[in-house]
Design a protein that fits this description.
CATH superfamily of the largest domain: Response regulator
Strand content: 15-25%
Radius of gyration: 16 Å
Helix content: 40-55%
CATH topology of the largest domain: Rossmann fold
Strand order of the largest sheet: 2-1-3-4-5
Shape: globular
Bound molecules: zinc ion
Distance between the termini: 35 Å
Order of helices and strands: HEHEHEHEHEHEEH
Largest sheet: 5 strands, parallel
């Protein structure tokens, strides 16, 4: 299934993206065994001004993070030899506050959702969600719109509301 169905979707996405402030010098590492997904993520993120590093296995990704240093990781859940959860744990051992977005074609087990900052399903709407989450996680100074405390890498993933407001996962359950 193509992630972007029409070429015009790419163009309209890029013009949206280009109106945002340029995220100077921020490095995003994409880890996925599917080369088409890697290519897609590279196009989207480079279009938004990020520097992109690609790895086709967990080992390669962990090494790149160690050697090059990165600001955020997009991580596939299901890969041969090493699950995304193992990769996430190894990345966090190197850099405890590293934001990690897990992408998956299927549902994510609860254990995996607890380890990473957020989960983005692989669908044809993935590009928009992905960019929004990358932007939210990579730029510091996130404040909960409910309790006004900072949002960091919480146990329960935070929830993005309309108009760019964000709340702690726990606060979200108090609101609804
Ligand atoms: Zn809160």
């Amino acid at each position: 299934m193509p992630l972007l169905s029409k070429e015009c979707e790419v163009h309209s996405l890029m013009s949206d993206v280009n109106n945002l402030a340029k995220p100077l010098g921020r490095k995003v590492l994409c880890i996925d065994d599917d080369l088409d997904v890697l290519k897609f993520e590279k196009v989207i993120l480079e279009g938004a001004g990020y520097e992109v590093l690609l790895a086709s296995s967990g080992d390669e990704g962990v090494n790149l993070a160690k050697v090059r240093g990165v600001d955020l990781v997009l991580l596939d859940y299901e890969m041969p030899r090493m699950f995304g959860t193992d990769v996430a744990q190894r990345l966090r051992a190197i850099q405890p506050t590293l934001p990690i977005i897990m992408v998956s074609g299927g549902d994510l087990p609860e254990e995996a959702a607890r380890i990473v900052d957020c989960f983005v399903p692989k669908t044809n709407k993935m590009a928009t969600t992905l960019l929004r989450e990358v932007k939210r996680l990579i730029h510091p100074g996130r404040i909960c719109a409910f309790c006004s405390l900072p949002i960091q890498n919480e146990q329960v993933p935070s929830v993005l509301l309309e108009a760019g407001k964000e709340v702690h996962g726990e606060c979200y359950f108090k609101m609804i």
